[in-house]
Design brief:
The complex is a heterodimer of chains A (415) and B (410). By secondary structure, chain A is α/β, with parallel strands linked by helices. Helices cover 37% and strands 16% of the residues of chain A. Chain A has two domains: 227 residues, Crotonobetainyl-coa:carnitine coa-transferase, domain 1 (Rossmann fold, 3-Layer(aba) Sandwich), CATH 3.40.50.10540; 108 residues, 2-Layer Sandwich (formyl-coa transferase, domain 3), CATH 3.30.1540. In chain A, strands 3-2-1-4-5-6 form a six-stranded parallel beta sheet, with helices on both faces. A three-stranded antiparallel beta sheet of chain A has the order 9-10-11, with helices on one face. In chain A, helix 1 crosses helix 2, helix 1 crosses helix 7 and helix 7 packs across helix 8. The model of chain A has no long low-confidence stretch (mean pLDDT 95). Chain B is an alpha/beta fold and 410 residues long. Chain B folds into two domains: 272 residues, Crotonobetainyl-coa:carnitine coa-transferase, domain 1 (Rossmann fold), CATH 3.40.50.10540; 92 residues, 2-Layer Sandwich (formyl-coa transferase, domain 3). In chain B, helix 1 crosses helix 8. Classes of the chains: A alpha/beta (415), B alpha/beta (410). At the A-B interface, helix 1, helix 2, helix 6, helix 7 and strand 6 of A face helix 2, helix 6, helix 8, strand 6 and helix 9 of B.
């Protein structure tokens, strides 16, 4: 759908996903690496744990579909070549330290002089402006300042960041959306503009309803409560934290336990399943679920309900509970890991996973398919990420360079 | 005056809950004309979500306009119409809106629109060039197509509930209904790409947005790692495989914390200087990343001995000035007062007829140099029914009044 657009991608691993998302919709995205390869290629994990820049799994994940060229944009000759590419492009995306591109004469104003239609998208932790603009923004730091760490974790231990670093992807994906907004604007104005995708702000949006809402309305500051999420109030006025995550026979599940008239039928039928397991459901047998809510429950009753549910879940596997939930429309889902999602029935049925060939590895790997399915063609991963400098000849010849000139640039380590 | 990015784009939306709204906000903030279709007979459940904003009018019922969730998500200019689809005339008016629109967005479980004859095939009959965006938890085909999709469950099934935690304890939720804010960006890209395509080719399309599938696109490396190395993600607390010290450290004050991440050996040297060059930090084995990772428990303890003497804001300032990543572990109040977010006017104060003045209305996390986001208070239920019928659809006021009598606009 977007095959008419050319995107030059200068991002580091914080923001590979931005260009990748645009490429999913058909844009021609050219990943520009330093000669020798992007430093992120040396961060793990690697295919078969072999430390090799051509076997980096994060690189595979978020640079698939892209073309790859090498270019040192900090050298005068490299800069000149880059500007030639800018003249052929619609979008440049970058995630350098704030001000870097300006400092080497490749800021928005410089690019715009060469190509007034160019959209420059800058992705950063905190923004190109303001008191934090020069802050270091590693994952855990931007996540902390974005409000998502304070409410994650157990009460008796420090708050928690994530063990899978992906926080900047939120800013990067907003950068992709901002790029499309700017391309839409260009239809009216004929001009490009400078777009920012900002991770801290993206995190603040994540916080907005559940974390900021209680503060905005009541001055309450939500804190962390282990596996529980929202607090409820019991009959005696005390606060109660019912778990969102539960242990089951072979892992964990999430249960959205609702106590309201709409959920009464589901709750009653779940109790019958629990009874079938031989678990004593006590007074829940004749419970008036329609009129039950947290506010009219005693602590003893609430504890008993948690105990009964907990015992039931421990009797069953994630797969069994998923089946039960799907059949009965229970608000319950397995906490999937990679093995689980690869065999998740709904995704299989929708032919979600895509086999992508890696001829150099003599293997194919399953990738998540498109984030959307459309009637105007396939959206999503189509081919593996580029090798270092794989498309140098194609792209530089497209600029009118001869094989001899390309060879010379290689020798000078400009490409 | 310069046109806005999506000026001229017309959207009709019947989205409940969060994802569809977050998705369309990007367009409505930037110039699209958006009509929100609702009914008071079966309101968006989010309008009924507690907590509710306090009122100073004693005894006033909560009603449908005071939900915090609703007002926080609906920050874009929308025109509101009430249509009760139990009345055939309501369906007819809806179809007229489809003819008017470029995009129809909806977020019901599969089946709801289909039963009304308002699936893509149905909409195409009245407007062959329509772009129909449908979002639901699991996608609109397959055995789970009609399952309701709550963010709390989707966060689990997309693996996001297994990435936060300590090695010796079960994982915890990442806090919030995470996928509700991860999947909209892909939905938004899809609509914007579809509009661009339509502008060039005249063709509309159907977009099936499965929140589980959009969510999984964020975790591809974990899927590849499992296939290539047979490995599931190991929980690491706040540690990092390739950097130390890296963690969350206690500070002066009640439940106050700072995140610190020393990513390189150069940063380690700056870090030592910034904390006053204590003897312990000069150990030669701490000079290299691998040495610091090996000794990270001990280093974490010593770092915390320093951080507990300062409020987190001060640690952040001292270390960032030295070029080391450090940030206050912000709570709701800190976010509200954050100088960087406020520099970007990320908290906008707006007046609301039922809730009064509140300053939590956010623009999108994007900033454009030549376009401003248009932020407005949430639309009231059916606020513009008459305007939409008469001005946009060209109906007479008599006709509108007659239909109102019949309950078409309930």
């Amino acid at each position: 759908m977007l095959s008419c657009y050319r995107v030059l991608d200068l991002t580091d691993d914080k923001a590979f996903i931005c260009g990748r998302a645009l490429s999913d919709f058909g844009a021609e995205v050219i990943k520009i690496e330093k000669p020798g390869g992007d430093p992120a290629r040396l961060k793990g994990p690697f295919y078969r744990d072999e430390v090799d820049p051509e076997k980096n799994l994060t690189w595979f994940a978020f640079n698939s579909n892209k073309k790859g060229i090498t270019l040192d944009i900090a050298t005068p000759q490299g800069k000149e070549l880059f500007l030639k590419l800018v003249a052929t492009a619609d979008v440049v995306i970058e995630s350098y330290a704030v001000g870097y591109l300006d400092s080497i004469g490749l800021g928005y104003d410089d690019l715009s002089k060469i190509n007034p239609g160019i959209v420059l998208t800058s992705i950063s932790g905190f923004g190109q402006d303001g008191p934090y603009r020069n802050y270091k923004d590693p994952d855990i730091v931007v996540r902390a300042l974005g409000g998502l760490i304070y409410t994650a974790g157990y009460e008796d231990r420090p708050p928690l960041g994530v063990s899978y670093e992906h926080t900047h992807y939120l800013g990067a994906m907003n950068g992709a959306v901002g790029t499309m907004i700017a391309l839409a604007h260009r239809v009216h104005t004929g001009k490009g503009q400078h777009v920012e995708g900002i991770t801290q702000q993206a995190l603040d949006i994540v916080c907005s309803a559940e974390i900021e809402g209680p503060y905005a309305f009541f001055g309450e500051i939500p804190t962390r409560h282990g596996r529980a999420r929202a607090a409820v109030t019991l009959k005696d006025g005390s606060t109660y934290y019912n778990p969102l995550l539960w242990s089951c026979k072979d892992g964990f599940i999430a249960l959205n336990l609702l106590l309201n008239p709409t959920a009464a039928r589901n709750n009653r039928s779940m109790m019958q399943y629990i009874k079938k397991d031989g678990i004593d459901i006590g007074s829940f047998e004749n419970w008036e679920w329609e009129s039950k809510n947290w506010e009219n429950m005693s602590r003893e009753e609430a504890d008993k309900l948690m105990e009964v549910l907990g015992e039931f879940f421990m009797n069953h596997t994630k797969d069994e509970l998923l089946e039960l939930a799907t059949e009965n429309r229970f608000q319950l889902g397995p906490c999937n890991n990679a093995e689980d999602v690869l065999k998740y029935p709904q995704l299989k049925e929708r032919d979600f996973w895509k086999d992508i060939e890696h001829p150099e590895l003599g293997a194919s790997l399953k990738y998540p398919g498109g984030a959307v399915v459309t009637t105007q063609g396939y959206i999503g991963v189509k081919h593996r990420a580029p090798l270092i400098g794989e498309h140098n000849d194609e792209i530089y010849k497209g600029l009118g360079l001869s094989s001899g000139e390309i060879q010379e640039l290689k020798e000078k380590r400009i490409i | 005056m310069t046109k806005k990015p999506f000026e001229g784009v017309k959207i009709v939306q019947l989205c409940w809950a969060g994802v569809g709204i977050y998705t369309l906000n990007y367009l409505s903030h930037y110039g699209a004309t958006t009509i929100r279709v609702e009914t008071a007979t079966r309101p968006d459940p989010v309008r009924l979500f507690a907590p509710f904003a306090p009122t100073n009018k004693e005894g006033e019922p909560v009603g449908l306009e005071r939900s915090a969730f609703f007002s926080i998500t609906h920050t874009a200019p929308e025109l509101g119409i009430c249509l009760n689809f139990k009345q055939p005339e309501a369906i007819e008016i809806f179809k007229k809106l489809v003819v008017w629109a470029d995009v129809v967005g909806e977020g019901f479980p599969t089946g709801v629109m289909d039963k009304l004859g308002l699936d893509y095939e149905g909409l195409k009959k009245v407007n062959p060039e329509i772009i129909m965006f449908r979002t639901c938890g699991y996608g609109h085909t397959g055995p789970m197509a009609d399952q309701p999709g709550f963010g709390s469950i989707l966060t689990a099934v997309t693996m996001m509930d297994t990435i936060t935690g300590w090695p010796d304890r079960p994982p915890v939720p990442p806090s919030t209904y995470y996928t509700d804010q991860l999947s909209p960006m892909y939905g938004s890209l899809a609509i914007m790409a579809a509009l661009d395509y339509k502008r060039r080719t005249g063709k509309g399309q159907y977009i099936d947005h499965a929140q589980i599938e959009a969510g999984l696109n964020y975790i591809t490396p974990l899927i590849l790692d499992y296939q290539a190395n047979g490995r599931e993600l190991a929980l690491k607390g706040n540690k990092c495989d390739y950097a130390a010290p890296h963690g969350v450290y206690r500070c002066q004050g009640d439940d106050r914390w700072v995140a610190i991440a020393v990513m390189t050996d150069e940063e380690w040297q700056s870090f030592i200087k910034a904390i006053g060059s204590p003897e312990w930090a000069k150990k030669p084995e701490y000079a290299t990343t691998s040495g610091r990772i090996t000794n990270s428990d001990e280093i974490d303890r010593l770092v915390e001995e320093w951080t507990v003497n300062y409020p987190p804001e001060q640690v952040q300032e001292i270390l960032q000035k030295a070029g080391v990543g450090a940030g206050l572990v912000a709570n709701a109040k800190d976010l509200d007062e954050d100088p960087q977010l406020n520099h970007y006017s990320f908290y906008r104060e707006l007046d609301h007829p039922y809730m009064g003045k509140l300053r939590y209305y956010h623009p999108d996390p994007v900033k454009l140099s030549a376009a401003e986001a248009d932020i407005q208070r949430p639309v009231l239920l059916g606020e513009h029914t008459d305007h939409i019928c008469t001005e946009i659809l060209g109906m007479s006021q008599e006709e509108v009044d007659g239909l109102r009598e019949k309950g078409v606009f309930d």
